[in-house]
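INTERNAL AUDIT FORM
Audit reference: QA-55
Scope: verify that the stored structure record matches its stored sequence.
Auditor: D.O.
Record contents follow.
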Amino acid sequence: MGETLRLLYSVFKLRIGFAIMLCTLAGVAAAPGPGPAVWQVLVLGLAVLASSASAGAFNQYAERDLDARMQRTRKRPFVTGRFNADGYWLAGIALLLVVSVVGAAFATNAMAALYVFLGAFTYGVVYTVWLKRRTWLNIVLGGLAGSFAVLAGAAAVDPALSAVPVILAIVLFLWTPPHFWSLAFAFREDYAAAGVPMLPVVMRAQGAAYVILAHTFALVALSLVPFWFGMGWVYGVGALAGGGYFLHASIRLARRPSVRNAMKNFHASLLQLTLLLTVTMLDAWLIG
């Protein structure tokens, strides 16, 4: 039983799902005006978690042939046969997505539900099916999945989106490529063996590191802009601290491209995003 739960946690990519849910809560916090009731926020958060889980499971279902060729993923349940990649799984994944979208619409409104759907569709179909095997731009456009989570939270407050949530959504869009490219840099031999054209596979290491740095600089600069749109000092300090740390790690990677520095940059990106989302909520709900 314990092993099955662990495998389900892995297949549904719940670690990523909780991060996506945090993006939604930040969107709620960043939107001006009276927020929805606690139960509405709770249902919306669970809906986003469920939609993310459906997209994550579909990703592993659809990529089991790629996963089998990669050292990092060859032990995933659909590869080993621990879970059978059959129609029952597809039906369950689809049902989970439908329930999440309907739940979001019931608890909030149609626009928030639409963003919940678009987030899962972007990751599950646009990224996984259409782009991942074809172009290094795969994760650039796939990064919209996190952006839609922020917009879903903001739309729950007001479907007519305001400046700060939109800026945060763009920050998420810019954040995803350097985050994932750093991981792909460290495992570029895996991606090359699987025939996946991630940026560090199709570009020389130094060039890829400079592209990562450029994205990091852009997202850190943009993450400071909400301070001039009314976010308070808690947000400003947190965005500056987390952004500075991520930028420092990206500069180090650009100066010395290596697997070790790529993984340090990957972890710095996680810290920066977690801090940014946390201070967004603290600033709005505790300070504001």
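Auditor finding: record pair retrieved intact. The domain at 162-288 is CATH 1.20.120.1780 (Four Helix Bundle (Hemerythrin (Met), subunit A)).
Action required: none
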